[in-house]
Amino acid sequence: MAEQSAASGPLPPGSTIGILGGGQLGRMISVAASRLGLQCHIFEPDAEPPAGQVAAAVTTAPYDDVDAVRAFAAAVDVVTFEFENVPASTLDLIEDQVAIHPTRRALAVSQDRLDEKAYISSLGIPVADHAEVSSRSDLAAAVSSTGGPGIVKTRRFGYDGKGQVRIGSAPTDGEIDEAWAELKGAPAIFEAMVPFTQEISVIVARSAAGEVVCFDPGVNVHRHGILHTTTVNGSLPPETVTAAIDIATRIVDALSYVGVMGVELFDTDSGLLVNEIAPRVHNSGHWTTEACVVDQFQQHVRAIAGWPLGDGSRHSDAVMTNLIGDEIDAWPHLAAEPGVGVHLYGKGASRPGRKMGHVTQISLRH
Amino acid sequence: MAEQSAASGPLPPGSTIGILGGGQLGRMISVAASRLGLQCHIFEPDAEPPAGQVAAAVTTAPYDDVDAVRAFAAAVDVVTFEFENVPASTLDLIEDQVAIHPTRRALAVSQDRLDEKAYISSLGIPVADHAEVSSRSDLAAAVSSTGGPGIVKTRRFGYDGKGQVRIGSAPTDGEIDEAWAELKGAPAIFEAMVPFTQEISVIVARSAAGEVVCFDPGVNVHRHGILHTTTVNGSLPPETVTAAIDIATRIVDALSYVGVMGVELFDTDSGLLVNEIAPRVHNSGHWTTEACVVDQFQQHVRAIAGWPLGDGSRHSDAVMTNLIGDEIDAWPHLAAEPGVGVHLYGKGASRPGRKMGHVTQISLRH
After folding, report:
1. What is the pLDDT of residues A162-221, one digit of tens each?
2. CA distances (Å), B323 to each of B228, B351, B354, B356, in order?
3. Which of B343, B289, B337, B296 is nearest to B316 (CA)?
4. ipTM field
5. Which residues in chain A are closer than 8 Å to B52, comparing Cβ atoms?
6. Residue of A nearest to B287 (CA)
7. Phi (first) and psi of residue B69, to 5 degrees
């Protein structure tokens, strides 16, 4: 632990950032921190986390191991997370000893899809039509009131399309039964399908001093509920870019947020609405590593360490493509492509749906 | 250690690269390796090496610790170095177990300034006028035959201006005495001062398959014998760029070199001549991290791991400035500069002349 605390100014080089979660996001945060002379300590229940290969220290312990959590908090100068579902009791323990960024409030809001929509609506920002679903009859009522089609999702612990069931426009009672059964009684939310023309995301950073910097919005394409590509090539009309950045800025300002946030938006004929927010570095911001002098990972580190934000302007156009499951087997060919940055996450086994790496193709900026 | 050996194809993701030396070059190689899903194991005599903060494993032992060297070699899939002065006996031990890249031949040539000049001359590439200095009378003869001024340098173990004494154009006997005394009897070389207009360097990579890729040549400015800035902004005439790349390519081809090499050149009215070569990633190539999709560190990893070389084309102009000694104290201001990538090396104490970090300013390509 370095001498100076976050409260009294920027964490000086030599300070240690604690990261809850040791996956690819933690790995890329740790690499970014090293550029600034900072080091990282990973806390991760699973053995041999990908982030541990590039971190100064790793604690392998369950999140409810009180002694391990306390020792971790004592060894670091600030804590962040790459994974939203860390138990509240773990965060309570840590917060007794050291600051957590982004703050608990942002995490709480984003952990519950219903609370998140309520919060964003309260800021005057549009979200999809939706309804709380606590019973089968709630679900049936929600479908008939919004007119379907839509998606019923668990309020908590969902990611990459997990905990989600699509419902068609005129579902039978049997289909409602089936969807309800699949939720296994978890509190849920029904979201009416949004007739969007494209999905956009904004990676926004806010510093402790309240400075806000957005990376250029990207256009996302999903496959099987998982991000497939993000494209940033000047194709968005300026008014859409301005509106997207305005929404992202209002959200982080309202939360007095510190760190990087991913804001996913639907672009519709009647304007933008927020799909969801992620209080962390985001898959749709991976392109920034190749196309900006300061990427989303370094921007996040700068924010949580009390540094000034960096220059996130885009020097090149970019298309980021995820490598899911055995798509990683193409690495020898991908590595030979001109203009391509290859990122492999150091995960042992590829499983269907598992994010194994990504590639970013850059080209002259339009 | 991964299943596949370097001989049978590219090292697959999950393989381990052993790095001899744990300074900032090893640190940046380790970060680059992580992008490709490879991990690094650092061997370094000093405790808490900067590279150890971003490596999967660190061995802290002297280079003559036979057991430690053998265990290190057994734990990795290929070995490279960030430091040229590893004892030959250590390399012998390692080579019994696992391949070293670049090879011993390149290292041997570059470790001795006299051998290096002889080798490069043998390829028909110009070098500075020079003479072997094994005695005081050799030194006096060299000065009078080349007509001075010049620099007398120890043949081995010199870097960043260490082991070098400048000699003026008409030195007194006392000045010759003093210079000779400063060498402390070490075998030396006298190099006549070259009337150069600028110093250029080329970072060249050669793969195991014989593919050669050069980054754009940069213009270097030194201060107190240490690199101060490298600028790559299209200012060099095309014929100089072509000649520089041709020289670098001939050297790596002649050596059947595998890895990245730094080739320092003097630009004179009668053309280019080679100042020195470094069989490793090089300070004058640090700008590539911000200005190319694949930087010199990743290019080196790709070469030694048997991968195809990446795209080293420059998407932006760049000026790299070293942070020496207490220049690092400016980090809070440097971090706030637009278009600037900041790199701090995680070294504890700043000492005069110690490389503590660097910054690279990028701008639109000319």
Report:
1. 778 999 888 889 999 999 998 888 899 999 999 999 999 999 999 999 999 999 999 999
2. 8, 11, 9, 6
3. B289
4. 0.92
5. 56
6. A293
7. -65, -40
